[in-house]
Amino acid sequence: xxxxxxxxPSNSSKSDIxxxxxxxxxxKIFWEDADRKYEDSADRLAIRRLLPESINDFxxxxxxxxxxxxxxxxxxxxxxxxDYSKTELQQAKELYGDKLKTQAGDIYKIPFSDSSFDxxxxxxxxxxxxxxxxxxxxxxxxxxxxxxAVIEVANKKTLPKMFRYWFKxxxxxxxxxxxxxxxxxxxxxFYNYHPKYIENIFKNSGFQIDQVLSVSNFRSxxxxxxxxxxxxxxxxxxxxxxxxxxxFAPSIYYRxxxxxx
Length: 261
Fold this sequence. Notes:
Layout: H1 26-32, H2 37-50, E1 55-61, E2 76-83, H3 86-96, E3 101-104, E4 117-122, H4 132-142, E5 143-154, H5 159-166, E6 180-182, E7 190-192, H6 195-205, E8 208-215, H7 221-227, H8 229-242, E9 251-257
Parallel strand pairs: 1-2, 1-4, 2-3, 4-5
Antiparallel strand pairs: 5-9, 6-7, 8-9
Helix pairs in contact: 2-8, 4-6, 7-8
């Protein structure tokens, strides 16, 4: 097993993009060519539970090619897909046409005015960002007072990571609050966050935490092979709320609210 090492985010420019998906077929390579039906279904379960039923102005932040667009197109009157990758946004236009507006830009300088949206979501993106406080502040800025943000966070404190640490297969301490930089995953690496650390970031921005879900609780190749996706999703339905207090899963979903003035 490759030994993982931890490194806190650097002081490099906030505009640095940790993962540039321009020219990369994320839809085919990561989702269609890999066995990730369980993860996709688990994400959708959480989104259906947390997003408001009816939304006027909505934005999917770092939404890629619009994998989850069908979860909000029926809820939002004016949906927008925002991403850094023009490749992903072009795929979204091919899939959804005029049903979904697209906007390219930098997560640290989101090109929307203050209080633009009634709701937003950001899924499978936090692990790419070097400065989560700056990102959280931007999300807070573009949300209307009383608005809802549904944000998924890559969790540092999971049971497999605890075992790797206890058995000296990893130097990453899942119990420490600082972010973990997993440099062995690709040339740039991914950031994982301790729940307490990320929740403090949200609170520092001004958000109130309204609801938490533990998601993808059974993300395991062995479990997929043994039990199958359908059985895992049945288990997932109960586990998302049941395990939320212990923040168990690799993905933690937050429903955040921007207080009314």
